[in-house]
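task queued by scheduler; priority normal; single chain, no ligands, no partner chains; default sampling; output format set to C-alpha cells
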Amino acid sequence: MNKKILSAILACAMLFAASPAVIAEDSGLALKAESHLKLDRETGYVDGIDGIPTVAELAKNFDGSITVRSASGETKADDESVACDDVISSGNDSLKALIYGDVNRDSKVSIGDAIDVLKIIAGWDTTVNKDAADVEKDGKVNVSDAIKLLKYVANWSDISLGNVRMVLDNSKQTAPSEDSRINMYFASMMEKIARENTTPTGNNAFKMSLARNESESCQVILAASEDKEGLSAEISDFEYEYGGHSLKAHLNWEHYYKIYVTDKVSGMKREQLNDLLLAGEGYYPEALPEMAETFELAANKSQGIQITVTADKDSPAGMYRAALYIKNAAGDVVKTAYVYAYVWDFTLPDTPYSASAFSLCRYDLYAYTREYDNLDLYKEFYDFLLDYNLSAYNLPYDVTTPEGEAYMNDPRVSAFVISGMEEAYAGEMHHSDEYIVEAYNKIINNPEWAKKGYFYYTDEPYETGLYNVKTRWEYLRDLLGTDNFRNLTPLASNTSYPDKECQRNGIDPVEYIKPYINLWCPQSGAFLDYADGGKWSSARSVQDYGNFSTRSKEFRDRGDEMWWYVCCAPEFPYANLFFWYQGIVIRDLLWQQYMCDIDGLLYYGTSVGWDKVSSRRYDSENGDGLLLYYGQLYGQRGPVASWRLVQLRDAFDDFDYLRMAEELCGREAVMKVVGRVTTNLLKFTEDVNVLEACRAEIAEMIVAAQAK
C-alpha cells in the first residue's frame, strides 16, 4: 500500500479514535502563530524542520508541552537532538519528525546519508527514510539530492535541505524577451566601479543583510555592447520566505563624474597609492538621484543602479526576495534577476549610538537652489540627513519654539547647536544673549535635551587663537551663571603653543584648553600614537604628557565626552570621506571610532563646493565637505544623496552593531572581531568580504545573546 495513503489512514484512525477531550487544543499538537513548521496530517509528518534541532529548540514552535520519543520508544531530554522519524506527541496526538538529510535516522546529516541516497538511486533494498532523502523536495530521489547533501556536509553556503528556507540562488535568470547584448550583474555598495569597467562580477543575484529598523543597499550594474535607449527598471517588493510580510524596495540612479587623484590632495606620490584609492582616472558614481522613468546605456560603458531595502521594526527575521526587471522601450522584460534581503533577529535603536554633528548651511541651500522663499527647504534637507543617521548642526527651528521642541524630542536627533560662532557658516549658529539664556534654561531642565545640546564657539584654534576657547567659555559661564554646559572645540593638531611662556613651560594646546572643554573633538589622527607614526602631537608634548589616546582617558574619567572629526585631513593613508576612496575606507572609519572608544563624529560640511559641481562637471578634487547635492542638477527637486552618504549611513549602523554587541557580550569579545577590520588608524582592511563577514559575526553575537 502507498505509504502516504497508509499514513493518512493511520492519522484519520487516530483522530476518530480519540475523544474530544484528548484532541482539544490544550492536549493536541498545535503550532504557535509565528512557527513556520507544518503539521501534515496527510503524510503523518511535522514538516519544515530546518536542520537538526534539539528537543528544546523544536518545542519552541509548539503551544503547550510536547514529548519526543525515539523510534525505540525512549523519551528524549531537552538537550538531545531530534532524529528523523522521532515521534512528537502532545496528549494522544502525535506525528513524526521529518528531518531532511537525516536519511538513516541517526540525528545528524553526514556523508553516510549521501551514500544512502546513492543506494536508493541504485535500487538497493534499504530501510532508510526516502522522504528525508528528497532534499531537493521535487518528489523524487536522484543524483541532485546526493550532490546537495554532499555540498551541505562540506559546509557550502546557501543550502537548505528540503528547501524549508529561502536561500540565495546565484544562477542567471532568463527574461521572457532576453537581450543577450546587455550584461547585468551585482556588486556591494562599497565597491565604487568605474564606468569604463564592464567586467562582470560573477554575482547574478545579491543578498543584503540588515537588522530591523535599518536600510541596506547594493548596486546592479548594466553594460551593453551597443547603445540602448528607452530602457526602464522596476523592482518588486521583497517578499518574506514564509509569506505574509514584505519589505519595500527603492531604486536610485548612479550619476558619474570624472575624478582623479592629485599628489596635492593625497600627500603621496601616485606610485604609492593602493587599492584603497581610485588610482586610475575615470568616471565614477557619486550622486544618487531618483530613478528616471526611462534611461539609456552607452555602448561598452557600465551603468549602476542602487537598490535599497528597509526593514521595519516589526519585520520578521529571515530571508526575503525581490525580482528586478529591465524593460525595453516596448515594455518587454529583457533582463531579470533576483535580489535577496536577510533580516537578522534584532532591532536597531532609533537613536544612533554615535552622535553626529554635520554642517548643513541654509545659505548654500537658498543660494544654489534659488528657492530663497522656501522656508521648508532646510527642514527637507535636515530630515533627509536624519534618514542617513546624521544630525546637522542647527535644528530647522529655534529650540525655544514648539517646532524646535519636537525636533529635540525626535530620538533620531543625536546633537544640535544651541549657539555658536558668528564668523563662520554665515553666522547661522549665532544667537543673542537673550535667546541663549532662554534656550539654555529650557534645555537644561530636560535631561534628554541636555545630552544633545552643545555650544560651538571656537573651531581649530591655533596659537593665540587658543585664548578664544578660554574667553568664550568664560562668557558663557558668566551669562548662564553656571559652568554646567557642553562646550565643543574641534582641535586640528596639538603642535602649537598659545604664547612664548607656554612654549617655554611646555604647555601645549590640550593642557591649555583642558579647563574649558568637556566635549573633546580632536582630528582623528590624535588617536595614532607618536611611536606608530602619529604626528598630531609634537614629540615634546608626548614626552611631557603622553599620547592623546592616553590623555583622553583622564578626560573621560572626569566625565568629559570624546568625539573626533575629519575634514580635508587627515589625508591618505588615513580613513576619511574623500570622493576617490573606496567605500570600505569610509566604513572602516566608524570601526576605528569604536576601536578608539569615541562617542561622536563631527564633519564640517555637506554642501560645501556646490559652485564647483554641475550635472557634468566636478571640480572638487576630493569631495571634501560635499556629501549632498540639490535636485535641480539632475532634473528633480529636493536633496540628492552622494554615494559616500550611503557609506556613512551604513557605517553608523555598523557602529550600532558594535555597541549593541558590547552591551550584550562585553567589549573584549567585540574587539576580537574589530581587530580583523582595523588595529590602528593606518592599518585597516581593504577587503569588502572581510568587513561583511565581521559585521555578520557581530550580528550573530547579538542574536545569540538576546536569545538567552
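post-processing summary
- The first strand starts at residue 38 and ends at 40.
- Residues 1-26 have pLDDT under 50 and may be disordered.
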